Backbone:
């Protein structure tokens, strides 16, 4: 199994990359290659032109901007796992990274590739929804625009980026209050998860909920979040009963389908259990952190 | 065809490669380093794992052209002056291979893992090796071997991380 024949360019700058993407109808970006190359090896993808962005230095930058962290699209999984600035800004990133593939996959795979690939069972898209990340994309003819996570994931393996657009930067608002947790169920360590649940909780002095966010992966075409449901719990006292109730309500709100890996019912049950556990753990950490 | 430079096991090579050639194919076909095996060619089995600039990577999911300028260690680069690497030695002592197809990937993965975690628990070893598949051994002896290697390396056996 070898990838089919393709043209290859290796731009050294963003401008050259955007030119290349605009020049061909069936150009594809090559980042870490950990999703694209397997698809090419199996002939599921046959791009005519491969635009290798691995040698564009500006895409590798990590920049602290005060309230936000800017991550270049080429920041690799292993950096997300180990960089102290990233851990301080959004501790769920390194936590989630340990669930992504294996160390050898994390050496090459990138944040930009993971978000652009938009696998609904991938961890980083779930975090993007939970953390309200913003995606900056560039094209030669359209210039730059910023897409909030909520509008970025369109369908299974599809984003709202155009074919000539390049994801260049991810803006991660720092998590300032409360605590967060991610849980998933995968059949084997390193496999894609059957379901993922991530939660972020901050509590008031009396133990009631100041803010709560939760997102699910693997349970639909795109990562799932429902802000209206979240805000209905603000002010409620945090308790095991409440975490169970949220888990149950979220499980009723999703619409998973049967596939070769798991039935819809199994996924719904996993989502409920994982979310309940995630909320419980995040609240526990939020309490520890504020010394209550 | 593009020209690239790869430093493999300390030797620099100037190569002409077709863009669609995988790094694994260039290592095997052009450089005759056939110790790097190809099992699945989709990143799952780990047999093709090499060290790319000091970190484990799948040579089946890396185009040779994109690796231009990289420093690569393959299983052939682990032994030095006819002396096996302590991890290789431990695999031999512990009978950690049968057909040997998966072994190069396990060795490379283990060498890198022990350089980052010199004193692992068995649980950590299992987790570290979870991206490598073996159809023969049942893994027990592989875990034993990595544990043994960690002990001998902590006692000061040489070249924990391959030098070129
Ligand atoms: C064995 C194995 C296990 C894995 N397990 C997991 C897992 O558990 N969880 C998980 O989340 N992932 C997993 N992955 C996938 C891995 O995380 C990939 O690294 C990731 O999905 C894609 O990132 P990449 O940089 O390798 O992108 P590539 O493979 O290079 O590209 C993927 C897609 O995104 C496009 N693209 C890439 N970068 C950009 C950009 N900057 N702008 C626009 N388009 C772009 C490409 O054109 C392509 O369509 C696994 C992969 C393997 C092989
Ligand atoms: S051949 Fe590369 S992981 Fe199986
Ligand atoms: S020894 Fe045969 S596959 Fe591992």
Residues:
């Amino acid at each position: 199994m070898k990838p089919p024949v393709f043209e290859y360019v290796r731009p050294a700058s963003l401008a050259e990359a955007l030119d290349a993407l605009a020049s061909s109808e069936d150009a594809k970006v090559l980042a870490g290659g950990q999703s694209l190359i397997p698809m090419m090896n199996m002939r599921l993808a046959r791009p005519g032109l491969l635009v290798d962005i691995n040698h564009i230095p500006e895409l590798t930058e990590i920049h602290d901007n005060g309230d936000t962290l800017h991550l270049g699209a080429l920041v690799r999984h292993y950096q997300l796992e180990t960089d102290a600035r990233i851990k301080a800004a959004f501790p769920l990133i390194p936590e989630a990274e340990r669930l992504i593939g294996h160390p050898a996959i994390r050496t090459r795979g990138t944040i930009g590739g993971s978000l652009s690939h938009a696998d609904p069972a991938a961890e980083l898209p779930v975090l993007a929804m939970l953390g309200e990340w913003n995606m900056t994309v560039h094209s030669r003819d359209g210039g730059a625009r910023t897409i909030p996570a909520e509008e970025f994931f369109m369908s299974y393996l599809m984003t709202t980026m155009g074919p000539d657009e390049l994801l260049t930067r991810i803006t991660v608002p720092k998590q300032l209050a409360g605590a967060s947790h991610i849980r998933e169920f995968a059949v084997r360590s390193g496999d894609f998860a059957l379901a993922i649940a991530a939660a972020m909780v901050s509590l008031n002095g009396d133990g009631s909920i100041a803010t709560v966010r939760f997102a699910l992966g693997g349970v639909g075409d795109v990562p799932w979040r429902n802000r209206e449901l979240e805000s209905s719990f603000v002010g409620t006292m945090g308790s095991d009963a409440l975490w169970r109730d949220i888990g149950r309500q979220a499980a009723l709100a999703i619409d998973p389908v049967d596939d070769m890996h798991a039935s819809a019912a199994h996924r719904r049950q996993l989502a409920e259990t994982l979310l309940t556990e995630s909320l419980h753990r995040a609240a526990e950490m939020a309490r520890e952190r504020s010394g209550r | 065809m593009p020209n690239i430079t790869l430093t493999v096991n300390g030797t620099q090579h100037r190569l002409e490669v077709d863009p669609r050639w995988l790094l694994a194919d260039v290592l095997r076909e052009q450089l005759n380093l056939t110790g790097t095996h190809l099992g699945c060619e989709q990143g799952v089995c780990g047999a093709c794992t090499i060290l790319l600039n000091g970190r484990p990577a799948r040579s089946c999911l890396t185009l040779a052209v994109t690796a231009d300028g990289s420093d690569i260690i393959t299983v052939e680069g682990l032994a030095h002056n006819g002396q096996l690497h302590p991890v290789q030695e431990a695999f031999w002592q512990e009978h950690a291979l049968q057909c040997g197809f998966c072994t190069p990937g396990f060795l490379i993965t283990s060498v890198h893992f022990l350089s980052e975690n010199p004193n692992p628990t068995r649980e950590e070893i299992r987790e570290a090796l979870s991206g490598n598949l073996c159809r023969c051994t049942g893994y027990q002896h592989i875990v034993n071997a990595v544990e043994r290697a960690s002990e001998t390396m902590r006692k000061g056996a040489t070249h924990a991380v391959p030098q070129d």
